[in-house]
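Quick entry between incubations.
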Amino acid sequence: MSEIVIAGIGQTSVGEHWDISLRELAFHAVQAAMRDAEGLQPQALYVGNMLAPNLSRQAHLGVLLADFCGLKGIEAATLEAGGASGGAALRQGYLAVASGYVQTALVVGVEKFTDQIGSEIDSAMATITDSDFEAVQGLTPTAQAALLMRRYMHEFDVPNGGFSGFALNAHAHAVGNKSAMFQKLIKLETYQNADVVSDPLNIFDIAPFADGAAAVLITRTDLLPPNFPHPLVRIAGSASATDTLALHDRHDPLWFQSADLSAARALQQAGIQVHDLSLFEYYDAYSIYAALSLEACHLAERGQGWRFDLDASRMPCATMGGLKARGNPGGASGVYQAVEATLQLRGSAGVLQVSQAKYALIQCLGGPASTAVSHVLQRLN
Amino acid sequence: MKDKTERSSPTLLKPDFPVGIVGYGAYVPRYRLPAKEVARIWTGGVGGLPIKEKSVPGMDEDVVTMSIEAARNAMARARVDPTGIRAVWVGSESHPYAVKPTSTIVAEAIGAVPNTQAADWEFACKAGTEAMVAAVGLVGSRMGHYALAIGMDTAQGKPGDALEYTAAAGGAAYLLGPADESLAIIQSSYSYVTDTPDFWRREYQRYPEHGQRFTGEPAYFKHISEAGRAMMEANGTSASDYKWAVFHQPNIKFPQRVAAMLGFSKEQIEPGLLVPVIGNTYAGSAMIGLSAVLDIAEPGDRILMVSFGSGAGSDAFDLLVTAHIHERRTLAPSTRDYIARRTEIDYATYVRMRGVLATR
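Done. Structure below.
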């Protein structure tokens, strides 16, 4: 039986690419993915992007990138689901190939933050909240995360500094990732002494917004060229789910229901249990979101997700640095996760290699899990 | 005609006729606003401070009066007849008039009129060193015997903006003339510019805007390090060949880091690093750093100065101190004398003095 696989991957480094435009950034990732896939030609291009119409005054990215990448004529469109845009584009690519209507789909996630500065970025980010009821009050995604974290600390008696494990783990892994924004270890004291951004979130609880593009080429095994050079990575499960858009509409704001639903559906489709996973790329735009994701995906007990100890024998997470240390390239994050998990499952993650990696769960969130997109990737023998 | 100088690089700026600094003078207004005062108003006192305190001009001071003070100090040290001056050039981003030169007023005040060039220069924080390079050209081509170049500012920082902590007032004046009359010879200079929109103020705008983190790597660090590196490469020198180094200083960290990038030690930049105690004097910043170094330099000391102006560019200068330094530097107040003359003010006094409170 033919399987749906990720045949090619590409990524740019994540950082402040002041001298590279949105289209060029995407092009670099696309070019790398197409080379990696031994020249497979896509019939469709799905773009994951969150803020280009706001920050770059550029919508219509499908045709922009198809044209710029020399793919004029193919189907192309943008998928937007806040921070889950990359995952939404990946799922669209998967659905297209799975449906049989498209043989090979190109998925590119791209975000360009540095076209704007300061309050322009905050204003743009606020558009992913409920504009009429949240943004209008001045709420930004960061303030929203701070409110959730304060509530969580109150409910579950978390001491100050309790979330340090996420940043320490992320930075430790980013040291081995040449595409990461911060390839530098941090000490516990650094975390403890960090400036507060939005109480109780300090600067190390928040992933830095950055420019970046990542791309994957999705196809069927029967379409691969002979002697395909990479170990095959199958998309074994794909699911997306929603919660309320506004945080205040939730009965239990400390439970990321869409994260739970989408992960459960993806795992079910893959036919595995959560403890069969070799690694989990969670969406750590804020440390509190990583903790809530671990709980929602049943990798930690309710109220215990924050106890993320660097030395404990737990599931490897943020294995290439996560959003915190690799950088948070907005709507590209979900595609970066796919690239990174593919590297792990191919056995090509170098010093960051998770041994015997067979199944990876990748999950990206839009807002406080207002949208969650989950994929299970599997190494085929 | 055969080139008389040995030109090690086609991009190095070096006159056929050697030029130097005949006299120099600094000026810093007496008022100081501690950075913690700004933090008290805007952040509740929370967060790091980029400097200790900044200088603030008095209510009757502007770039004209301050330039005259510095120019008089430069003339006192130079001890030359002001009618020999063929150019008075003032670089600033706070000229009091949009149309009408600062420089004619300064020229008149020091007795350099009427047989002189007079013009105001604009290149953000390197307007003053741009005037210096031009003055080297004027004297070095023997079009004129002396030329006066001034970098002076009463810099504007929007209330609450990061720049309000540092935007300060002060600067320095340099009378350039033949090398054999000089207390420091300008051995060569090198300029590095690109179109880089890191910081700007459009006409009729009261306060400048900036690109936040974009002002660092692609602007300040790139231009200063490229200019310094190219200058040293063309001269076949390295950091250890210089006794002192001065860099544009918008805050404490930037000049320290760019110095390290170019191989200079903390000791080499210490005498010229004035930003902790006077703030960022913009067009005056690197030039007043140099005046503080000349206040303590000894004959034979080699000095590297690199300015930075947003927009963006850097001028690098290679200077050699001569024996004339001893007899001249005591003829006017030193830079540190001005820094020591200090009256602390609070934020309320500051906004009144700077005209931030609009009363009509």
